[in-house]
Amino acid sequence: MNSILCCRDIQIRQEVHKLGVLILLWRRQLGMTQYQLADKSGLAQSYISDLESGAIDPRWSTIYRVVSGLGQMSVQDFLNGPQTIRTLRIH
After folding, report:
1. How many angstroms separate the CA atoms of 39 and 34, rounded?
2. What are the pLDDT digits (tens) for 16-28?
3. How far apart (Å, rounded) are the C-alpha atoms in residues 61 and 67?
4. How far apart are CA 76 and CA 50, in angstroms?
5. I need a surface site. Which of 30, 54, 88, 90 has the fewest CB within 10 A?
6. Where does residue 36 rank: exposed (0-12), middle (13-18), buried (19+ CB within 10 A)?
């Protein structure tokens, strides 16, 4: 296996995992269950669970649906993470 492709695959998996963690953190910050987020985003609860665990590499259209389901925030705000995470990054 090409080592460059292997490293790239690892980086992609890490980014997908980070995205899932962001979804989980925002959902919890907003006091939502997976079922509530699924309902508001038009996705299945099992899909939300797979996203949060990093099992799925979503399309951008799916990310927009999730962000929309989380409420009134921009994708940039979503990617920056909840305030509690931003505070941890500063220290």
Report:
1. 9
2. 999 999 999 999 9
3. 10
4. 22
5. 90
6. middle
Spatial separation of the C-alpha atoms in residues 5 and 19, rounded to whole Å: 21
CA distances from 34 to 39, 41, 42, 54 (A): 9, 10, 12, 15
Mean pLDDT of 86-91: 49
The residue length of the chain stands at 91
Please tell me the pTM assigned to this model. 0.84
- Tokens at residue 23, please? 């979804």
Residue with tokens 């296996």: 1
Cα(57)–Cα(76) distance, rounded to whole angstroms?
19
